Amino acid sequence: MKVFLLHGDRDGAPDASPPPNRHDLTQDLELDTLFDAMAAEDEFLRDIVPRVVFASLSEPEEIRYRQQVLADCVANPAVVRDLYAIAVDARRVERKVWFGILSRESPEHILHRSVKILEYLVENLRQLRQIAAEHAGAFDSPGFRRFFAMLQEELDDDYFALVGNHLKELEFPHGVLMSAELGAGNRGVRYGLHRVPHRGWLERIAGSSPPSYGFTVPARDEAGARALGDLQDQGLNVVANALAQSADHVKSFFHVLRAELAFYLGCLNLHERLSAKGAPCCFPEPRPGTDVALTARGLYDVCLALRSREPVAGNDVDADGASLVLITGANQGGKSTFLRSCGTAQLMLQAGMFAPAGSLRADVCTGLFTHFKREEDDTMTKGKLDEELARMSEIADRIRPGGQLLCNESFASTNEAEGSELARRVIRALTESGVKVLFVTHLYDLGRSLHEQHRDDMLFLRAERGQTYRLAEGEPLPTSYGADSYRRVFAPATGSDG
Amino acid sequence: MPRFPSVLFPDGESADGLAEPAFFGDLNFGQVVSAITAGHGDYELDPFFFAPLHEESAVEYRHEVFGDLERDEVHEVLGEFAERMQRMRKRRTLAGKIHYPRQQQRWFLDSVDSYCAAVAFLQEGLDRVELRSRGLQAMREHVTGYLSGESFRALLADTRDLQERLARIKYRVHVQGARVKVSAFAEDADYSSEVEKTFAKFKQGAVQDYLVDFRDPPEMNHIEAQVLDCVARLHPETFRALAGYCERHRDPVEATIGRFDREVQFYLAYLAHVRRLSQAGLTFCYPEVSASSREVFAEDAFDLALATKLVPDTPVVCNDFRTSSTERVLVVTGPNQGGKTTFARMFGQLTHLAALGCPVPAARARLFLPDRVFTHFEREEDPVSLRGKLEDELVRIRDILRDATGRSVIVLNESFASTTLQDARYIGTEVLRRIIDLGALAVYVTFVDDLAALGEETVSMVGAVVPDDPAERTYKIERRPADGLAYAAALATKYGLTYQELRRRIGR
Asked: pTM for this one?
């Protein structure tokens, strides 16, 4: 029994180790806003959602699988929330079946507790099957269709009856019958457990038993009673283990179900928030990594949209085939916002989510990285350029061909000539290694020298003066708009504070 | 049967009873020994490390054995043999402690069983592989002779017969309340697997293992003993035979095999340590050794104690040294914390390891077999006055120079901490001259640069640092006149961000 709602062929693995650069991504793309909106104050969702988002999918096929499941969720939110509630209830079993804490658990304890746990979980399984029977017809995605069919096939009435019988028999009303052999030091080994044969009264009178010798532990012999318990535990060990593991597996099934549904619940929460704002979203078109693509209409920064009361401006981009997108232009012109909107949309696309845009087409990358200018240096152990280069070196350790790097004012902590030279080398090495680079910069020397190469796989965008927050294709211009900013900040009469 | 005394000492000497040499502390050699012998505690290997060899031929004898054991097929045989012998000893020990006779007898039988298996395995194993060392060849001959002897064959037959009879016994135990019934075995389906099958469909990957690991006290409790007594009543003849067996065979382990079992651990323990460090990219080699020539060298040598601590998290810095026919004393100068002391220790360690007949921590080496190794390192814990400290230091150096000969190796790490530079230069010069006059091979660590150029007998070795970043140590000790020379790398180079380096790191 597998959930398989996040992936068609494996569990969601919410415990898989997250990428080491997730903190950089979260900070640079301001993802906490997105994750908070998806969690809607549910701690479990808050934990799961980032894990799933950071465990990016790499195949368009996988992405479409998840998009279809998500579309089902959007169409049937109430049923999905009911399923989630059952999974949550199943996870409470430990608190409801409480046996106290023992310093050393014996197989007998383990067995008894496992029986109780399974008795509880069987009820949750019944409820799941009930929902499957009632609502399966309303779901179209391969993921949900498989899930519901599995519940109906595996959990029929006969199966519930069989499980009930075992759980009764495992209370051992007729004592414990074991088999054993002599092992090292003549101690019993290879203990087996057997059903106690039910002999009729005729057999008992006939007395056709094999030869046997026996003894009774006296009531006063407490050590003997304990030792007898230990002996019996040898026989119960395997079955106790089997049952406890079975209980774990069933629990784990519900755990996986809860975790996988939690992600979709997060998506539902976000969908409701954006719909309420009238912010558009779409299922993006994932392209294979070999087909370098980035085309969007009305692409906006979802985190900015969630924070602001006003509708936010979107950008149109046509960067198909571009392995370098260099963004220059005015301060406060929306360059960083644009860079963040690209990064966030890329992550959402590769998580199988809807994208914050009217339409979006992009190729899947092997890993998204950010190298943003940092204002502070917490450690004070290194100079600023040292710190920047150290971070770039960490990225180089992890980024692979087919990766994507978003740079925001990288190498600006040294003079323009030196910074440009460093950037040129890094950009060349990265793009020639098959890494897509989106680079926001003030370094005119860098922009000019790259623009003069007149290459088809480089796209130059420019933020315009005046606060349209829109970017248009355009070559880098020699003067920075820092003067504008300066004048605005130091203006004697403040018209608008931007 | 040919007389075969020892796989360590061609003449059959013994290292037992020897005390730890005085230089162990200074050279951190005790740490080396502890690291090597960790996990081999039962064998009491330490004394073997206290007994340096003084003849080239004895060293060669061990090199041969090491050479054989370095080959996987030979190593596997001896490793497995050791495991089996250990199993035997463990069971033997148990048999001695146990109270219930039927259990005690079985532990004894099991221990002899392990012994027979171990010896038979050793013979088969050694037969199967090619042996080039005199030591292991002789052992093979010895074992083959022993196995075909009458006493072993009788032991083996007796043991097997009894084991087979006991292994055939199966029984059932029915526990109901306080009542226990033991009866003969009857074939019946296993209920545990039936339960397991019922829930198999929920398998979700790895889960916790709930199998209780029963505290297996070597001794049965009285309930188990009662069950065993019931089983014995079901099989009376087998249990009578067991009691007779224990009377007949009391001390089955043959003396030479016992000694070999322990001594071969010296090799296995050392090689295991070598392997651990080799995996981190460090190299060991068989040094050329001489008891007469003081022309020594080593390439890519390292401090074994330090490397043991650093690997695998921190890279280990390797160093070279070389003396020509006239050179006797390596004078090491340079900044503090630059690796001088480590270099001096390394030299001493290499010398002693070579005398133990071991592969040494270096890529290539030629080393001297001294009559003794003397060391003097500054003692920090002495709570005496500064003047007392200097005098104490001088007394110890004087004692060393009194006992040392021209065939000794001396490692001196002087501090003369309480003196002026002028005094230190004077004392240092005097001490160094005496060492040179003695003709001993020595390493002399000092902060007085001038001593490095005292004469044609001295070789100047200098600890290097990165000049632009004195906090960054290279721990390299180089042969050159005492001064500082290095260059800072460009920032991009430092971070591996040059075009070529980036392309290499990202791949494709």
From this structure: 0.60
